[in-house]
Amino acid sequence: xxxxxxxxxxxxxxxxxxxxxxxxxxxxxxxxxxxxxxxxxxxxxxxxxxxxxxxxxxxxxxxxxxxxxxxxxxxxxxxxxxxxxxxxxxxxxxxxxxxxxxxxxxxxxxxxxxxxxxxxxxxxxxxxxxxxxxxxxxxxxxxxxxxxxxxxxxxxxxxxxxxxxxxxxxxxxxxxxxxxxxxxxxxxxxxxxxxxxxxxxxxxxxxxxxxxxxxxxxxxxxxx
Length: 224
Prior knowledge:
The protein has a single domain (about 5-210), classed as Rossmann fold, CATH 3.40.50.720. The model has no long low-confidence stretch (mean pLDDT about 95). It is about 35% helix and about 15% strand. It has an eight-stranded mixed β-sheet, sandwiched between helices. The longest helix has 17 residues, at about 190-210. The chain is an alpha/beta fold and about 220 residues long. The protein starts with a strand and ends in a 16-residue tail after the last helix. The chain is built from seven helices and eight strands; from the N terminus they run βαβαβαβαβαββαβα.
């Protein structure tokens, strides 16, 4: 596939996705507000994965400018500001995959409480903020960052919501590169609001059942 930039790529979800895609042979750039931090984390991942892993680090806007695929893994509190700051860095016809969930924990509230988003969901907000020609898919909100490090299969469905078929195809292809993950077509981008809400439910299940990294499997389907 094309070069993948992960904005907020030095956090648990960003590094987890980067390691999975690099193991699958993809070229990944970790983005951070601080280029030095991104390069340090990228070097640490290369040491773990092997010298052949195609992982680099750079400042967020520089990473976005180099990539055809951009994956957003940031807290919702930084969502709008980050996208506004990156608007001029996007390549024409880039694909943005938004993993953001508007959890109240990002502004000091409970992790099981969702914030209201005027557009309906974080992904729909992203679609309003990116330049014309950049297409958006919502994906990976329900895959726990705790399950991504290592090589064990991740037994979870990735529900992909997008209005654009190319964005859906790219997000689905990335999901299938993670062993155990099944990519499911979740319909239009407006359905991202439902998928984002499921993350709050999974956090509740983790807490009540003293579990780590619960996920979702939709039964009755064989779609990959």
